[in-house]
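Quick entry between incubations.
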Amino acid sequence: MKVKYFAWVRERIGVAEESVEPPADVRTVSDLIDWLSRRGETYAHAFDRPKVIRAAIDHAHVKPDATISGAREIAFFPPMTGG
Amino acid sequence: MPVAATIRIQEGDFDAAREIAALSKGRTDIGAVVTFSGICRGSENGEPIAALTLEHYPGMAEAEIGRHADEALSRWPLQGLTIIHRFGRIPPGENIVLVVTASSHRQAAFEAAEFLMDYLKTSAPFWKREESAKGTSWIEARDRDDAAAARWTRS
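Done. Structure below.
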């Protein structure tokens, strides 16, 4: 699946998007954050306050317990500050 | 006839007067047009800023704003709706966002515009970074914006 990062999450990780193949036991958005956090220091830093991180699956906001099965694109970002 | 919202996510500026005219020109069923323009301030928390840079999530920005536009059209009797949100570098004094709502009567136009702005603030995927003499920093989301959006939730 494709993973995208925005704003300071993107800056901390150092890439805007990448393809990942998490193992089968990574079932939810929250599991994916934990799994990504273990990929290295930049990821651990980006996700060091998991409660602040917002997520979207295929362009729609989701909660941390949302299942990622079948997702084409998952995005992680800080709370939005548009408008 | 169902009303279709006009939604644009663009880097360039917009002209609010032209957008109002485009919504209402040649029509006699519209009795009220409410316009909200969000403009880049020259200071943030008392500190002068050089510009804001807005990052956005292409694709989701259109989808998310579209969902809120559809909700506004279903909740209020609107005869026209235009939403424009800019991205990229925006210096103080320039436009950031525009919401134009048209209806037969003012209450629907006022309420729908306020509803849309409250949701644009908290759920449209845009992030503001400020440039100042101290460097650049991401603007933090404010709890009061979440509270403003929450009051529109239907129980």
